């Protein structure tokens, strides 16, 4: 299948954006280097969408946090009222709570719309690096604020409400407990003091989570994956061509370097080691060369500690080997085995890819036009030759059992055929055994004994003399 490469600067720039948004590698240095290529461009329409959605998400996260706090406070207060057998007060408090919730929902919608408009203005007029930063902020606040509010409220404010209730009971001022969020007198000072402490704890937890996630790049990558679910990651050859057109001097050099790489000269173990390099340029070159290796890179990815990188590379390898071999039958030049679709588990996910069924490689292959025919011909000097659309290999010259659709004995004595059958029966792997069970064995040479024919029938599906 043909691959459409960028032919203009606009197409190349679009491919760079797609790589920034959807690479899923968690490699911040690499992403920042790509972002530097578009740092002068303004977000425009797409930036407005990003800014609007993310600021609205941040405001929604704030309101969800308030809702969690309000529900927790109301629940705790009702429990105290029920314990004090003030059922009438509890019913009134629930009614007031429903009214406030309805009012709060309307206010939340209004503020989210205002935030969406404001965020759109900011995103449309901001440079792309800032627009990309917005991709993580809104989703981060939307998820973290409600999650942090609940434990903080539980550990700080619920015990405070219990102590307040005890104090109110002692002071014979039980009616004060009916207020869901504020208290009067001395207890108000205690309440807001604990509130300030709770906010400090929440900020400390948020800062710690923020620092950890930025180091791994997970939040940035995940936010971009969510914000641009319809955008597909570009093919690695498209990215290399795009970087050659619109990249800076460093990216042009890297793209030229990987474009000239020959798969047969690459060492998989060295490339897998380079994936953990501290230099992002070495990681870039290693990733692209591993994709070029195809199936040969799979074994190292199966045990790679970085699941993001392993999964992203495996997706590219699967797509590239499928493009090259799914619609064309091929034969490995090293093992003389057919290229087949194989399955593997990488980062807990199942992937399919095409590679030699023995060594997994798919770059050094011969395309088959029709059948793969094995022969035993002691008069021939050729190890393999095309006979019309069929590729014919000679066991007498090749000295190994290649994959086959049919086998013919053309010129050989009975001893040669018997020796061949013994070698075959001892060296068949599982794939070849299945092939022989479905292949025809044709004897054209004279003087072959019935004993040899019986040996052949034990290995091949049918024998024709």
What can you tell me about this protein's structure?
- By secondary structure, the chain is α/β, with parallel strands linked by helices.
- The chain folds into 3 domains: 24-227, no CATH class; 261-366, no CATH class; 370-464, no CATH class.
- It contains 17 helices and 10 strands.
- The protein has helices spanning 9-22, 28-35, 44-83, 87-125, 128-170, 186-216, 218-227, 236-246, 249-259, 268-274, 280-293, 298-302, 307-325, 395-398, 414-427, 430-438, 450-459, and strands at 330-332, 339-346, 349-356, 365-367, 372-377, 384-387, 390-394, 406-411, 440-443, 462-464.
- Helix 8 (236-246) runs antiparallel to helix 9 (249-259).
- It is elongated.
- Residues 171-188 and 208-220 have low confidence and may be disordered.
């Amino acid at each position: 299948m043909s691959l459409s490469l960028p032919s203009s600067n606009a197409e190349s720039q679009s491919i760079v954006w797609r790589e920034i948004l959807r690479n899923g590698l968690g490699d911040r240095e690499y992403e920042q280097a790509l972002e530097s290529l578009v740092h002068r461009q303004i977000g425009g329409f797409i930036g407005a969408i990003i800014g609007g959605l993310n600021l609205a998400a941040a405001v929604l996260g704030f309101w969800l946090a308030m809702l969690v706090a309000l529900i927790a406070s109301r629940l705790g207060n009702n429990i105290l009222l029920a314990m004090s057998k003030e059922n009438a007060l509890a019913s009134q408090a629930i009614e007031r709570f429903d009214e406030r919730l309805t009012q709060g929902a309307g206010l939340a919608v209004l503020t989210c719309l205002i935030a969406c408009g404001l965020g759109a203005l900011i995103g449309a007029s901001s440079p792309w690096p800032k627009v990309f930063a917005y991709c993580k902020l809104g989703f981060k606040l939307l998820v973290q604020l409600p999650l942090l509010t609940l434990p903080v409220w539980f550990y700080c404010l619920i015990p405070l409400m219990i102590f307040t209730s005890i104090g109110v009971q002692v002071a014979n001022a039980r009616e004060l407990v009916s207020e869901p969020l504020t208290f009067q007198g001395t207890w108000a000072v205690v309440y807001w003091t604990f509130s300030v402490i709770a906010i400090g704890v929440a900020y400390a937890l948020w800062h710690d989570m923020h620092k950890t996630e930025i180091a791994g790049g997970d939040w940035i990558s995940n936010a971009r994956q969510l914000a641009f679910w319809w955008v597909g990651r570009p093919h690695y050859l498209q990215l290399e061509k795009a970087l050659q057109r619109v990249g800076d001097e460093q990216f042009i050099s890297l793209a030229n370097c990987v474009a000239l790489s020959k798969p047969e000269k690459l060492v998989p173990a060295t490339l897998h080691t380079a994936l953990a390099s501290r230099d992002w340029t070495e990681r870039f070159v290693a990733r692209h060369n591993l994709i070029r290796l195809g199936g040969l890179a799979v074994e190292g990815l199966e045990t790679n500690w970085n699941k993001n990188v392993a999964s992203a590379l495996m997706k590219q390898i699967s797509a590239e080997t499928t493009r090259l071999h799914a619609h064309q039958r091929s034969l490995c030049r090293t093992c003389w085995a057919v290229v087949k679709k194989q399955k593997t588990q990488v980062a807990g996910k199942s992937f399919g890819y095409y590679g030699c069924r023995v060594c997994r490689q798919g770059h050094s292959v011969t395309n088959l036009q029709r059948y793969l025919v094995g022969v035993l011909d002691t008069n021939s000097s050729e190890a393999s030759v095309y006979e019309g659309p069929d590729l014919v290999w000679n066991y007498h010259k090749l000295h190994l059992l290649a994959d086959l659709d049919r086998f013919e004995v053309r010129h050989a004595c009975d001893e040669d055929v018997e020796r061949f059958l013994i070698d075959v029966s001892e060296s068949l792997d599982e794939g070849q055994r299945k092939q022989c069970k479905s292949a025809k064995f044709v004897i054209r040479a004279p003087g072959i004994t019935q004993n040899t024919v019986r040996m052949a029938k034990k290995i091949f599906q049918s024998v024709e003399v």
